[in-house]
């Protein structure tokens, strides 16, 4: 299993989809896992949850636990299962609880601003 490192992501981060800003935060976390691309986790309080619709999809990661998924729903589009969250992560990665991460997609942009 790859080593997981979590640190505060420097600066301010934003996530947009379909022209809508879903959230901005100065409190993002950056998760590094092995040789994978870093993943930015946004505090749930900094995301407009009205745009997110929980789905039935659940995935399991041995290093993090079970991830619930959400689709992004806005006026112009629906992006299925575009967001995930570890609502009860394993103890080693407890900091990502109450955070959301976004799959890279044409319709979803996570950027440092």
TrEMBL record:
It holds the Pfam family NTP_transf_9. Residues 14-104 form the DUF427 domain. Signal peptide: none annotated. This is DUF427 domain-containing protein. It comes from Ruegeria atlantica.
């Amino acid at each position: 299993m790859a080593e997981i490192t979590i640190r505060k992501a420097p600066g301010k981060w934003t996530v947009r989809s379909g022209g809508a800003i879903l959230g901005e935060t100065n409190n993002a976390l950056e998760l590094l896992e092995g040789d994978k691309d870093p993943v930015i986790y946004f505090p749930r309080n900094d995301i407009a949850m009205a745009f997110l619709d929980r789905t039935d999809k659940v995935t399991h990661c041995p290093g993090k636990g079970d991830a619930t998924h959400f689709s992004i729903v806005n006026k112009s589009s629906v992006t299925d299962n575009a967001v995930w969250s570890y609502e009860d992560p394993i103890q080693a990665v407890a900091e990502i609880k109450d955070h959301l991460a976004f799959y890279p997609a044409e319709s979803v942009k996570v950027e440092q601003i």
